[in-house]
Amino acid sequence: CGPTLGNLVDLAEGRDDLTVIHAEVYQRPAEAGGDLANAPLAPLPEKYGLLLEPVLYVTDASHTITTRADSMIDRTEMAEVIG
To answer: Cα separation of 40 and 43, whole Å?
Structure first.
C-alpha cells in the first residue's frame, strides 16, 4: 500500500543498518483499469499465501524474521517495529 511503503522509505533514509525490499503484490497493476480487483496476484505473494497487503517483515542480522506487521500501520508504529 502506497502510504505504508512511503513511510518505510522515509524512515529508512540515511540508515545504513536497514535494507528495504519491496515486492509488488499485483501483476501489471497499471492494466487493471483503476480496480486492483481485476489484477492478478504477482507470483511472490501468491506463492506465500499472502492474502492481504501490506505486510511488513523485519529480520535480524541473521535474516530471521523477528516481526511481522499485517495491514496498514502508522509511521509511529512502523518506527517502533523497525527500531
So the answer is: 9
Check: CB of residue 45 under 8 Å from CB of residue 25: yes
Cell numbers linked to 11? 524512515
Q: What three-state secondary structure class fits 9?
A: helix
Please confirm whether the linkage preceding 54 is cis (ω < 30° from 0).
yes
Task: Please give the average pLDDT of every successive group of 10 residues along the chain, which has 83 residues.
Answer: 87 91 84 83 84 87 91 89 89
Give the number of other CB atoms < 10 A from CB of residue 60. 9
**Which residues contact residue 6 at a Cβ distance below 8 angstroms, ignoring those fewer than 6 apart?**
none
45-66 pLDDT, tens digit each: 878 888 788 889 999 989 999 9
Furthest-apart CA atoms within the chain: distance in Å = 41
